């Protein structure tokens, strides 16, 4: 039972920490209402931490053990790579989809505790926790559905100017080149800028076939914009209607992914 309580404490603490991070990301993206949703989840998960601590004092007469990260079960809270994505690209739908799946994992965990708890009191409390996690998932599903349709409406109303975005990348890279002190880095930035200008002109004279994939609005920073374009071209390479358009998008994706890797490598120097 001690180990179970320690896992429960670690799980709830990790969930609270991750929701706090998602709340910060939503505020960065100016998604104020969603930030409030995640803030509320932080408060509720913190309440769960207090409850687990009370259980441990009742059963073991001591606070629950704090497990080291390596001792925690894998995938207790799976952020699905969000931490590796530029903050500007962590849109509402993706954040909410991740949260929904993790609440479902938490529901399964507490359902197990409710069935195998050491005492009737713990089993009853675990049932309540499971119900709360299920309510969390329902709330998050509603928010996810709203985010999905909001993104679709935005995409329909505002088609993407890929030529303009590539030209913006070109401009940013030229500015970035001027900031570089190492000749090799300066030359790489300039080469990428020339390439982005060529892509911009190509897309202006021969736009990528519609319909385009539904995505959040493009960001402004160089790193995030390069990542957004890479993702866009990858999606287009899978979803555009004609094979010729898909082949062209896949070629653009190869260029964009290579560019993103170079930009990120330069940023770490």
Automatic annotation (TrEMBL):
<dbReference type="GO" id="GO:0046872">
    <property type="term" value="F:metal ion binding"/>
</dbReference>
<dbReference type="GO" id="GO:0016491">
    <property type="term" value="F:oxidoreductase activity"/>
</dbReference>
<dbReference type="InterPro" id="IPR009078">
    <property type="entry name" value="Ferritin-like_SF"/>
</dbReference>
<dbReference type="Pfam" id="PF02915">
    <property type="entry name" value="Rubrerythrin"/>
</dbReference>
<dbReference type="InterPro" id="IPR003251">
    <property type="entry name" value="Rr_diiron-bd_dom"/>
</dbReference>
<dbReference type="InterPro" id="IPR012347">
    <property type="entry name" value="Ferritin-like"/>
</dbReference>
<feature type="domain" description="Rubrerythrin diiron-binding">
    <location>
        <begin position="3"/>
        <end position="61"/>
    </location>
</feature>
<feature type="domain" description="Rubrerythrin diiron-binding">
    <location>
        <begin position="96"/>
        <end position="160"/>
    </location>
</feature>
<protein>
    <recommendedName>
        <fullName>Rubrerythrin diiron-binding domain-containing protein</fullName>
    </recommendedName>
</protein>
């Amino acid at each position: 039972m001690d180990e179970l309580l320690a896992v429960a404490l670690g799980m709830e603490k990790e969930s609270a920490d991750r929701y706090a991070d998602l709340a910060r990301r939503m505020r960065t993206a100016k998604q104020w209402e969603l930030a409030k949703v995640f803030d509320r989840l932080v408060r509720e998960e913190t309440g769960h931490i207090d409850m687990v601590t009370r259980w441990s004092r009742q059963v073991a007469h001591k606070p629950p053990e704090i497990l080291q990260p390596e001792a925690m079960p894998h995938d207790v809270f799976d952020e699905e790579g969000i931490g590796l994505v530029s903050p500007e690209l962590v849109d509402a739908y993706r954040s909410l989809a991740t949260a929904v799946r993790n609440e479902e994992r938490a529901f399964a965990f507490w359902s197990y505790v409710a069935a195998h708890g050491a005492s009737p009191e713990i089993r009853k409390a675990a049932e309540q926790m499971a119900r709360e996690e299920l309510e969390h998932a329902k709330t998050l599903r509603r928010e996810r559905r709203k985010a999905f349709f909001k993104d679709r409406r935005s995409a329909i109303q505002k088609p993407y100017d890929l030529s303009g975005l590539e030209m913006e990348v070109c401009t940013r890279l030229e500015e970035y080149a001027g900031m570089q002190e190492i000749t090799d880095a300066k030359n790489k930035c300039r080469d990428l800028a020339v390439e982005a200008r060529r892509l911009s002109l190509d897309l202006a004279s021969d736009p990528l076939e519609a319909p385009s994939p539904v995505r959040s609005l493009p960001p402004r920073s160089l790193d995030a914009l390069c990542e957004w374009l890479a993702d866009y071209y990858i999606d287009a390479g899978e979803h555009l209607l004609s094979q010729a358009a898909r082949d062209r998008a896949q070629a653009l994706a190869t260029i964009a992914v290579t560019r993103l890797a170079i930009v990120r490598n330069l940023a770490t120097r």
